[in-house]
Amino acid sequence: MSQYRAIRGMADILPEETPLWQMLEQTARDVLMAHGYREIRTPIVESTDLFARSIGEVTDIVEKEMYTFLDRNNESLSLRPEGTASTVRAMVQNGLLNASQRVWYLGPMFRYERPQKGRQRQFHQIGVEAFGIPSPDQDAELLLLSRQWWRRLGIDDVLTLELNSIGSSDARHNYKAALVAYLQQHLDAIDDDSRRRLTTNPLRILDSKDAGTQTVLEGAPSISDFLDDQSKAHRDRLAELLSRASLSFVWNDRLVRGLDYYNDTVFEWTTDQLGAQSTVCGGGRYDGLVQQFGGKATPAAGFAAGLERLILLLQVLELQADELTDLYVVSADETTLSHAMAETDRIRADYPGLSVTQHLGGGSFKSQFKRADKSGAKWALIFGDDEVASGLVTVKPMRSDGEQQTLTASELNKFLSRLEQASEESED
Length: 428
Ligand code: ATP
Ligand code: MG
Hints:
Shape: elongated
CATH topology of the largest domain: BirA Bifunctional Protein, domain 2
Bound molecules: adenosine-5'-triphosphate, magnesium ion
Strand order of the largest sheet: 1-5-6-11-10-9-7-8
Structural class: alpha+beta
Helix content: 40-55%
Strand content: 15-25%
Number of domains: 2
CATH superfamily of the largest domain: Bira Bifunctional Protein, Domain 2
Number of helices: 15
Number of strands: 16
Largest sheet: 8 strands, mixed
């Protein structure tokens, strides 16, 4: 074994897994483009203060999960733990918020958490943010968009949308007081972490996994009783838009989310297929964040999906990406190989929709076919001595039940056209 190992909680994504990742990412790109969202790419590193101020000083992320370091100029920098803060910073800095904007990002995020299935220290998110629209139709669009993505992935059946409204900051302020007053009567029955949060971040207690605390919470006041008329109207209109589009959801009045910047709508897409790490996507509305970053007040809403958890879900459901290779080229010896190489080069130029792997380094037909099989190729293209001498080539099915055939040059071209067409159709 090599003396070097990847850092704990940070995984290599190996070539055999990347087709699934590429499929996951490509479906997202397609859906986002179809909804008029454009990609933004921001640096992995930002000033620590950016995250501390936006995510909240007394959240888990800022208190104990950030990768923070001093650079050579003694500035405190952090690896991004999420993408919204950087996106908002970039939008404000580049003066992009004078019109409404729809953007998305994809990339690694870093949080110093306890690694376990579906929870890593470097993980990946696709995030979507929409700026400039205060009304609930924006929230609805984000949710319908995410459902389109789940549909294309084939996982919509195993996902549930949980929805809540956490109202205005006044509503949360009043609710916090009521929640704290209630919990103070049950101090003995709640866990240590929650007791500590009573004074720092009481809303987070609703998230506690402790069974005793959960029992106590059953009798706690509900935030829904603290919403003002505007928040109620927003919530009800969103529910109406979703119902009209047949997107079913469940209200969860304990759903608060881990970041401080949300208001009104918050949501999570959850599944019962992944054990404890059941949330694959979460988001909500954050109307105050842009102004907090020095921009002019701009309403906003968005979500982030955790790609590792979506990959796990695709694997649990045994959903696979399409085969990577269409053709595997084998040849008899050095002489036929030189012909095969030139011919393969021509095929790649003439049929760019096909993925062609040529066997390199020689070896017996038997060992070459073993490789062909392992490559997942649909067909082997065989350049044997006799065939090459008479200008022919043999195609042999590796997966389907087609027939082995020996083809002339023009027959080969017809065969390759059909294969390219079939391969392009299967991608749609
Ligand atoms: P959790 O409650 O599971 O810790 P979170 O509320 O901290 O999630 P968000 O900050 O909302 O998560 O991030 C959005 C999504 O990113 C999550 O729903 C999840 O799918 C994914 N995610 C968050 N943290 C991790 C992690 N450490 N490893 C893998 N995926 C993660
Ligand atoms: Mg978390």
